[in-house]
């Protein structure tokens, strides 16, 4: 019994290490294919599915439909990109926008997660991304990222809004309150999981505070909102 327990105690970390190495190899192959695409061309769904599977984190990873929209817009946006939260979408934004010379700014409040994403960006040379550790801060009416506003671009053409996480006071209202004056006419905001109560409150508040055209798309795993600044 002791020998069997000892073997299991040794085997578990070895198995985890092997799985991690295999996952990294899969991601490396998928990223090579992504970075080999011509500039301005978005990856098709099979490659996005391969990237998602290799990235792991199935519990929180964006679904394929959302990744497809992020990739489509990132491949053609002409101006800076802001991402609220980070993950596989950060690699996509770096590879499809940052590699074309478009600035990508990503805000992340979890230090350990930021380290993982930053390491992936370095390992896969996924384009220039400014990935900032931005703790969630209390702005009175809402909680939002402590963004490095003085350093950020004066205008963002694309915003990928998948944070702060559910349950944060005020939801994602803070985006327009703090960044709204940096969203010129034609700027696009992608809001994931738009059917939730908190996100619906966010949409109503945003539409009250700014001239926006809202397009809702029902996806297999939720609702995506695409908002365009008038």
How is this structure best described in words?
The protein is α/β, with parallel strands linked by helices and 230 residues long. It has a single domain, classed as 3-Layer(aba) Sandwich (Rossmann fold). 43% of the residues lie in helices and 19% in strands. It has seven helices and nine strands, in the order H-H-H-E-H-E-H-E-E-E-E-H-E-H-E-E. The chain has helices spanning 2-35, 45-55, 64-74, 88-96, 111-124, 174-179, 197-209; strands spanning 81-84, 104-108, 130-133, 136-138, 143-145, 158-161, 188-191, 212-219, 222-229. Strands 3-2-1-6-7-9-8 form a seven-stranded mixed beta sheet, with helices on both faces. It has a two-stranded antiparallel sheet with strand order 4-5. Strand 4 (136-138) and strand 5 (143-145) form a beta hairpin. Helix 1 runs antiparallel to helix 2 and helix 3 packs parallel to helix 4 (88-96). It starts with a helix and ends with a strand. The mean pLDDT is 89.
């Amino acid at each position: 019994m002791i020998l069997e327990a000892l073997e299991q105690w040794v085997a578990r970390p070895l198995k985890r290490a092997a799985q991690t190495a295999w996952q990294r190899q899969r991601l490396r192959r998928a990223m090579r294919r992504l970075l080999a695409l011509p500039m301005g061309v978005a990856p098709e769904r099979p490659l996005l599915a391969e990237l998602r599977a290799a990235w792991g984190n199935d519990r929180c990873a964006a679904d394929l439909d959302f990744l497809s929209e992020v990739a489509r817009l990132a491949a053609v946006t002409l101006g800076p990109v802001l991402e609220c939260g980070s993950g596989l979408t950060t690699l996509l934004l770096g590879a499809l926008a940052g590699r074309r010379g478009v600035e990508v700014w990503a805000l992340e409040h979890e230090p350990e997660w930021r380290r993982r994403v930053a390491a992936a960006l370095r390992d896969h040379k996924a384009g220039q991304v400014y990935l900032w550790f931005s703790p969630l801060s209390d702005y009175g009416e809402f909680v939002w990222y402590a963004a490095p506003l003085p350093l950020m671009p004066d205008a963002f053409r694309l915003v990928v809004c998948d944070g702060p996480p559910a349950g944060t006071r005020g939801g994602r209202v803070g985006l327009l309150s703090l960044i709204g004056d940096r969203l010129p006419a034609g700027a696009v905001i992608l809001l994931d999981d738009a059917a939730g109560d908190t996100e619906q409150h966010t949409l109503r508040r945003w539409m009250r505070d700014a001239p926006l055209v809202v397009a809702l798309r029902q996806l297999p795993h939720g609702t995506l909102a695409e908002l365009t600044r008038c």
